[in-house]
Amino acid sequence: MVELFKHIIHLDFEWIFANYNTAIYVVLFLVIFIETGLVAMPFLPGDSLLFTAGLFARSGMLNLSYLFMLLFIAAVLGDNINYWVGRKIGIKVFNIKIKNKQLVKQEYLVKTEEFFMKYGVKAIIMARFVPFVRTFAPFAAGVGKMDYKKYVLFDILGGALWIGSLTTAGYLLGEVEIIRKRIDLVCIGIILISVAPIILGYFKNRKKSS
Fold first, then answer.
1. Which of 123, 35, 28, 130 is nearest to 79 (CA)?
2. Per DSSP, what are the bridge partners of residue 98?
3. Taking the chain, what is the end-to-end CA distance rounded to the nearest angstrom?
4. What is the DSSP secondary structure assignment for residue 174, as one 8-state letter?
5. Backbone φ and ψ of 97, nearest 5°
6. Cα separation of 188 and 167, whole Å?
7. What is the pTM of this model?
8. SS3 of 182, please?
């Protein structure tokens, strides 16, 4: 399991496919489900994983339709579980400690709440494209007891946009030789673009404080 986790973090699809064959769909499903469903696991490579999955769909190793269907279900299911954990358990989750360390950092929830204040209900959709925030957005919506019908509508729309746009982008750009050969650099670029709003927000807040 540790070995699998290491290859997931490094987006080593060739190793995963060689060792798990068609069960790679199950692996990808679980990664997206865990990232969106567990507030303690916000660091999984969601954006870059989706893009890379699209690239490998172009090569014929994966089926793009299966990817979209399964990963969309994983994203929506994970978010909804996260929402109800927030609604039923709430901030008590921040009292859970392992080896005297908080299982979940409260600062992530604070940043997510600020995100909600800035963008309102649209934050449910926009959060999909921001690492860490996308994991805490459904939890924060649950803690805030957002109307579930409204939440689930925006969540489904956001999930479809997130999964569809990144897997399709990977699939279409899979034809470009330089991208195909330098997947590692492409993934780093996606990560940097994804976290850019967080970094800019941090420096903006520091500037205001000073």
1. 35
2. 101
3. 46
4. T
5. -125, 145
6. 16
7. 0.80
8. coil
